[in-house]
Each structure stands twice: as structure tokens, then as C-alpha cells.
Specification:
The chain has 14 helices and no strands. It is mostly helical. The protein has two domains: 64 residues; 222 residues, MetI-like (MetI-like fold, Orthogonal Bundle). Helix 8 packs parallel to helix 14.
Length: 294
């Protein structure tokens, strides 16, 4: 009996060791590209050209922040004379923050209606909403551009902001799953107290679903922040470039200055990384809860 217990314990230890080894390997595989980006951004161009193969652990004296200075001083916007990176960061937040806030309100209201209200054609409209999730976004790209161009709205933020403010089908679907798990008795008690539909949404549904809403808001913010195709199509003026388009300017026009390109990549990573660090608890909790509700 003692030998069998020792054998079972040894098997458990071997299994855990193998699992942790795989997880550590996967973690290093994911983190190594970020390490290469950061180290490259701190090197001089001539150091990269003269050191082949790549030096993984350069000496402290070989590191420099010149590339980060180039981002904010060497490549200004022609119309304004301001840093293209700072301009891109400001434009990106100007687009993404209002879009995320208004889009979350629209999505949560729609999810509340599909989950708790009764109206004609409810199942049909929800099925139509789910059908839109199956359609590739590229299908509507050319028709959307033709419409916005006909209305004279190209080279403006309107095509980047207003459509997204009407909500996301994916967000509506996930929030509906969460709202459906809230007991109807809670809503019935509120109705007996004279609370209307909007009052129930504002006083009950939103407070109870903050983790799920935070999770979806983070996903929406990251998607808008990383959007490259839409700004590339609709924005022409340099002063209206988003951060992703500004970084493309560096990688396209300054291929020889690789540290500056990598410094721009590091700058692009920082905002989303900070958001995840400070909102990690809400994000993980929201994803877990949303997945469990039905």
C-alpha cells in the first residue's frame, strides 16, 4: 500500500512538472518577441548593423533612448508641426473612448431587451443579429466606403466612430447571456415598486453586470485601438492619423532606422498593457461569469 501511494504521488508530481514545463515554454515563446522589440528599440542603428547575429544581452553602455526621442522630435506632422506619434495617440483616444462608451450603452440596452423584454419578432431579430456575426466584415468594406464617400464623410472620424456607437453583435450576444441569468423575480419585485423598464436597466441590470460590461468594454477598446484597416481607408490627412497609421509611416518610410520602428511598437503596446494590468480582475471575472451564464 505504501509503495502504491508513493507511485501515485510520483505520477502526480511528474504530471505537474510536465504541465509547468509546457506552460513555461509557451510563456517564453510569447514573451521573447516582446523582449526582442524592447531591446532593439534601445539599440543604435549602427549597433544592429555591426552585430550579427542578434545580441540578446547587450551591455548597458550600448543601450540608448535615441529611438524614443526620434518618435517625438524627428518626424512631425506637416500641417501642425507636432509629433506624429503624439498626434496619433491623441486622435486614437479621441476616436476610441467615446466610441467604446456609447457602443457599450447601445449594446447593453439591446442585450437587456433581448434577455428580459417581450416584444413581437424578438427571436427573429436576435437570430438576424447572430447572422451578422457570421458575415465577414470585408464584405461590407467597399459598399460602406462608397456610401461615406458619396456623403462627403471620408477623411473624417465619422466612419470610424458612428457605426461602432450602435453597438456590436458579439457584445450584445455575450451580455444577453449574462442578463438571462439574472432571476426574473428581481425584476418583478422592482416592477411592483413602480420601477420602469429604464429604471430596471439602470438600477438593477447595470450594477449586477459590471464585470461582464467591463470585460466587453476592454475588448471593444482594444479592437478599436488596434484597428488599422479602417483608418487606412478613410483617413488621408496626416493631422488626423491614428497611432497605427502613424506607426506605419515610420515602418514604411524609415526601414533603415529599425530602433525607431521598434520604439513606436513599444509605445503602441503601453496603453493596452496598462489597461489590462489595472483591469485584469474585472476582465477575467467578466469573461468567466459571461461564459457561465445561460
Amino acid at each position: 500500500m505504501i509503495n502504491e501511494a508513493i507511485i501515485r504521488k510520483g505520477k502526480r508530481i511528474a504530471q505537474k512538472t510536465f504541465i509547468y514545463a509546457v506552460l513555461v515554454f509557451v510563456a517564453f515563446t510569447i514573451l521573447i518577441p516582446f523582449y526582442v522589440i524592447i531591446i532593439t528599440s534601445l539599440k543604435e542603428s549602427h549597433a544592429l548593423a555591426t552585430h550579427i547575429p542578434f545580441i540578446w544581452f547587450p551591455k548597458f553602455g550600448e543601450l540608448s533612448f535615441r529611438a524614443y526621442g526620434n518618435l517625438f522630435t524627428s518626424y512631425p506632422v506637416i500641417e501642425t508641426g507636432k509629433s506624429m506619434v503624439l498626434t496619433g495617440i491623441g486622435n486614437t483616444f479621441l476616436i476610441v473612448i467615446p466610441t467604446t462608451v456609447v457602443g457599450m450603452i447601445s449594446s447593453s440596452v439591446s442585450a437587456y431587451a433581448f434577455a428580459k423584454l417581450r416584444f413581437w419578432g424578438k427571436n427573429f431579430f436576435f437570430s438576424a443579429l447572430l447572422f451578422t456575426m457570421m458575415m465577414p466584415g470585408i464584405v461590407m468594406l467597399i459598399p460602406s466606403y462608397i456610401i461615406f464617400d458619396y456623403l462627403g464623410l471620408t477623411d473624417t472620424y465619422f466612419p470610424l466612430m458612428v457605426p461602432a456607437m450602435f453597438g456590436s453583435a458579439q457584445c450584445v450576444f455575450f451580455l444577453r447571456q449574462f442578463f438571462s441569468g439574472i432571476p426574473d423575480e428581481v425584476l418583478d419585485a422592482a416592477k411592483l415598486d413602480g420601477v420602469g423598464y429604464l429604471g430596471i436597466y439602470w438600477r438593477i441590470m447595470l450594477p449586477l453586470s459590471l464585470p461582464a460590461i467591463f470585460a466587453q468594454a476592454i475588448l471593444g477598446f482594444v479592437a478599436g485601438y488596434n484597428d488599422y484597416l479602417a483608418p487606412l481607408i478613410y483617413i488621408v490627412s496626416e493631422k488626423k492619423y491614428t497611432l497605427q497609421i502613424a506607426l506605419q509611416f515610420f515602418s514604411g518610410g524609415n526601414l533603415k532606422d529599425l530602433p525607431t520602428v521598434m520604439a513606436g511598437a513599444v509605445m503602441a503596446i503601453i496603453p493596452t498593457t496598462l489597461i489590462y494590468v489595472f483591469a485584469q480582475r474585472y476582465f477575467v471575472e467578466g469573461i468567466a461569469i459571461t461564459g457561465l451564464k445561460a
